[in-house]
Design a protein that fits this description.
- Helix 4 packs parallel to helix 9.
- The protein is about 55% helix and about 15% strand.
- The protein folds into two domains: about 160 residues, no CATH class; about 130 residues, no CATH class.
- It is elongated, with a radius of gyration of 23 Å.
- It is an alpha+beta fold.
- The structure holds zinc ion (ZN).
């Protein structure tokens, strides 16, 4: 066993079987992502793509990789503009990329953006697999509280390259973000059709299925859990920054995706998420009894469509809010 002092001195814990020289390996890892960050700073995404392992590149060019990155292309003009930003291309040039080139360049754009995080972070843990072919790096940025990030690299020749699993993981993150965004869009569509917000997320299932063909469109692709929905208690007057949908649990690296009432998706670390959630639930909890009283009073006299709306949307929405408040330990 290596002396503890040496491990601390390296600021890295390497699981057995150990590297021949952990300090050298950490240096090699650091130089791999420094090069990544440099190529990103130089705006050279093709070079960034050169930091993917052979396996990662093959995956991006495979049917699975192409299918995974295809939905990120976007169909609306806004989506295309967002995509072009990641690709660091003009929307016109972005729209002309072949599927393979698109997947590779998109992954490079995301990887490069993550590389900026790497360059500001401190290694807290390096975990290697049995054959030392894969390494997982956990990082922290002391200046930013609870910030955490995970990266996995594969051994290739004498150096380290971004692993296939990480490249696939990246796309999953974006998938969760896209999905949660889609659900947000369908919430707005639902309101414009029925003039009410859905009482339960399940009421969106049909329109989401029709639009995306994904029967799990209400579930985070990383967690497999259904997103949590906060029924907009103030209807159209709900503040645009109110959390409306969010990941039921944090992802493996401690982040959650959420959608604000305005439809904006956000990617939050757990501490930030909890702060916003507590604040929003306080407001909801304070307003709930008054709204409940009004809905119940309206129900006494309502009939036909109005009664059905109050029952299907408002009563279910309020019950949903009560159970979220209970679940979140308020
Ligand atoms: Zn998620």
């Amino acid at each position: 066993m290596r002396p503890l002092a040496l491990i601390l001195c390296l600021a890295a814990i390497v699981a057995a079987p150990a590297f021949a020289d952990p300090a050298e390996e950490e240096k090699a890892l650091r130089s791999a992502w420094d090069a990544l960050a440099k190529d990103f700073a130089a705006n050279d995404l093709d070079k960034v793509a050169g930091h993917f392992s052979k396996e990662a590149t093959a995956w991006l060019e495979s049917a699975e990789g192409l299918a995974a990155y295809k939905p990120l292309r976007g169909t609306s003009e806004d989506e295309l503009k967002g995509t072009a930003r990641v690709l660091r291309l003009e929307p016109e040039a972005a729209s002309k990329l072949e599927p393979g080139a698109f997947a590779k360049r998109y992954a490079a754009g995301l990887a490069a953006w993550k590389a900026e995080e790497l360059s500001k972070s401190r290694v807290v843990k390096v975990r290697a697999d049995g054959e030392l072919r894969m390494v997982e790096v956990q990082l922290e940025r002391p200046s930013e509280g609870d910030y955490r990030a995970h990266f996995t690299f594969s051994r290739e020749g004498d150096g380290w390259k971004l692993s296939k699993s990480w490249v696939a993981h990246l796309h999953e993150y974006v998938s969760c973000c896209n999905l949660v965004y889609q659900v947000g869009i369908h919430l707005a569509l639902f309101e414009s059709k029925f003039k009410e917000y859905p009482g339960e997320l399940g009421q969106l299932k049909e329109s989401l299925m029709a639009a995306t063909g994904n029967e799990n469109a209400l579930k985070c692709p990383l967690l497999g859990d259904e997103y949590v929905y906060l029924f907009p208690l103030e209807g159209d007057m709900t503040p645009p920054g109110r959390l409306t949908l969010y990941d039921r649990k944090p992802h493996a690296d401690g982040t959650r995706l959420a959608v604000m009432f305005a439809g904006t998706p956000v990617w939050l670390d757990e501490a930030q998420f909890q702060e916003w959630l507590r604040k929003d639930l306080d407001v909801i909890q304070a307003k709930l009894p008054e709204v409940e009283k009004k809905v119940k009073a309206d129900l006494e006299t309502a009939d036909g469509q109005k009664k059905a709306n109050l029952e299907n949307y408002w009563m279910k929405g309020l019950t949903g809010l009560r159970s979220v408040i209970k679940r979140e330990g308020k």
